[in-house]
Amino acid sequence: MKRTSLASKNLADRPSRTIVSALGIGFAIVLMFMQLGFMGAVGATATNVYGRALGDVVIRSPEYLQAYDPRSISTRLIGIVASLAEVAEVRTLDLGVTRWQNPISGEFRVVALMGIDPYFSALCLPELGDQASLIHRREYVLIDRTTRADFGPIDGKRFSGVDVGRDVEVTGKRVVIAGTFEMGTGLAANGAILLSHDGFNRIAPDRQSVPANERRVSMLLVRLREGVDEKKGQAAIRKHLESLGGTEGGCDVLTIDEAVQAERWHWYVQTPVGVIFGVGVAMAVIVGGVICYMVLAADVIARLPEYATLKAIGYPNAYLVKVLLSQAALLAGIAFVPALVTSLGLYWATSKLSGIPIEMTMNRMLLVSGLSIAMCGSAGWMALRKMTKAEPANLF
Predict the structure, then answer these.
(1) If we measure between CA atoms, which residue out of 334, 324, 330 comes closest to residue 304?
(2) Given 1, 30, 71, 108, which is the most exposed site by the fewest CB atoms within 10 A?
């Protein structure tokens, strides 16, 4: 004979209560999705530069903090590293932030700077192409089309071809918008411009005091020769620099993957932003657990005579636990689908409004579904714990 599913019957018996319960749990699931989505956006935008880096190994200052506060190293390292047998080529990259003045309102905004060799770019930017010659002059820049509207595009919405030729003040110096590209901004700034190394040295605040005969860059991107293992190439470069001693010997030498992981770790753990979102996920699980516990505890109390009868006729505690845990898992499943749909809509709206992409991933869906089941299961176990220790006669 087919067994009756008490868990599903309990939920179907009072559909209005089940719907309200699912809405409460769904709210907690949406909170988890949103907090994890924000954390994912933090990681994605923090590694935007490294994701486009043309190289296998990055060399940077031992005082490096994060991508847009990298400090600097001497350009003498270019020749030193390029002479190694494992190295195919060395590209230079400058990164930083400074003040951008909205040409319409006059308000100041923080803008990210990316300095490159226009004809030997360290970043994979297909749109650079014919525009490379435009930024060869140090007064000319390309602006990221994802830059926020409060930076002052002519149409008030988005920088485009109509903004080409406009004069703008950056760090109090005049620059000309020569074109546009699209790479995506991040947490360090809501806008970004691309310019030559000379243009970067002209407007970057930390380069103003550097002597003209002491050329510096933010980092070097090294491409290894074909067939050279990434780790072996990294070790060879590090060993050679250490043998030189001095400031060159203290430079960080990382693979691109290591640099990406280190950047994510910095934003997740060492900044308030990552910590806040991490705590938010934990709070969402706690809130959902409390809601689920209240729902299931109320259901257990309402059905004590039925559970007592089952115990009296010989059903073991394990069976009762199974029933309530199944009921908790069903509630999580009922709540998950509408919560997922709601989260997708919120992801889209948040991405539109903030300009920071938040994308749903399969790993995130699996993680949240697992957390939801664990959350509801734990609440179900707590709700049933007292009853499993009681004698049937005491439950009537």
Answers:
(1) 324
(2) 1
